[in-house]
Design goal:
By secondary structure, the protein is α+β, with helices and mostly antiparallel strands. The protein has a domain of 126 residues: START domain (Alpha-D-Glucose-1,6-Bisphosphate, Chain A, domain 4, 2-Layer Sandwich). It is built from five helices and seven strands, in the order αβααββββββαα. Helix 2 crosses helix 3. The N terminus is likely disordered.
C-alpha cells in the first residue's frame, strides 16, 4: 500500500483534531439518524470497561496510542499515528462528556482529518456495557449528532461499517489477545481487510 493510502487507513476511524478558526454556521442536524453497532465480548464487564477507559486498553484493540483521563471533561484522545506531528496523531481535543462506572461512557467524537469540511463539527459516541452472565459483556455503541448534506452522508455511510470493525477488534482482543499492530497493518496492506472482521452487505444511509 502506498504511504498516503496507509496513512488514510490509519486515520480513518479517529476523532480529528479540532482546528481553531471562526465559528462555522449552525449544523442542520439529523436527530433521527444514528449509527448503532453492538457485539457480545467474551469477558467480564470490568475488563471490557477497562479496555475502553484506559490508555493501555485502547492500545490493545483500537489504536497504537491514547491519552485518557476518566473524569467528566477529561481527555479521550486516541492516537493512530502517535509519532506524527501534533494535531495529526489522532483525537487531540476530544473529551469525556460523562460516564457511569462499568455501565456507560459518553464522549465527543469528530470525523477523520481526510474529511476536512467536517473536522470541527463534533459528534458524540455513547457506549453501553451490559453484563451477560459473569464472563460476557454486550457492548452497544451509538454514534449520533450527524448533519445533513453530501459530506455528512458519506461520513455516515463510512461509519456504518467502521464501528463494526472496531467492535470486531475488541472481541479479537479478548478471544485471541491484544492486537499486534504491525501484523494487523501488514494483513490490511496485503488483503484490504482483516480476517476477523465480520462481513455484511452495505447498509443504506437514511
Amino acid at each position: 500500500m502506498k504511504q498516503p493510502a496507509l496513512a488514510a487507513f490509519l486515520l480513518c476511524l479517529m476523532p480529528a483534531f479540532a482546528i481553531a478558526q471562526e465559528a462555522p454556521p449552525p449544523i442542520d442536524r439529523s436527530p433521527d439518524r444514528v449509527v448503532k453497532s453492538e457485539i457480545v465480548v467474551p469477558a467480564p464487564v470490568a475488563e471490557v470497561w477497562s479496555a475502553w477507559t484506559t490508555s493501555a486498553g485502547i492500545q490493545s484493540f483500537f489504536a497504537r496510542g491514547a491519552k485518557i483521563s476518566l473524569d467528566q471533561g477529561g481527555a479521550y484522545e486516541i492516537y493512530f499515528l502517535p509519532d506524527a506531528e501534533e494535531g495529526q496523531r489522532g483525537s487531540e481535543g476530544t473529551h469525556i462528556l460523562g460516564y457511569q462506572l462499568h455501565r456507560m461512557l459518553h464522549v465527543t467524537w469528530a470525523l477523520p482529518p481526510y474529511m476536512p469540511a467536517l473536522r470541527h463539527d463534533l459528534t458524540t459516541v455513547l457506549i453501553h456495557f451490559i453484563p451477560e452472565g459473569d464472563n460476557a459483556t454486550r457492548v452497544v455503541l451509538v454514534h449520533s449528532g450527524w448533519g445533513r448534506g453530501d459530506d455528512w452522508d458519506a461520513a455516515y455511510a463510512y461509519f456504518l461499517t467502521s464501528w463494526d470493525q472496531v467492535l470486531d477488534n475488541l472481541v479479537h482482543r479478548f478471544s485471541d489477545g491484544p492486537i499486534d499492530w504491525d501484523a494487523y497493518l501488514k494483513e490490511y496492506e496485503e488483503t484490504g481487510t482483516i480476517s476477523w472482521w465480520r462481513q455484511k452487505p452495505p447498509q443504506p444511509s437514511n
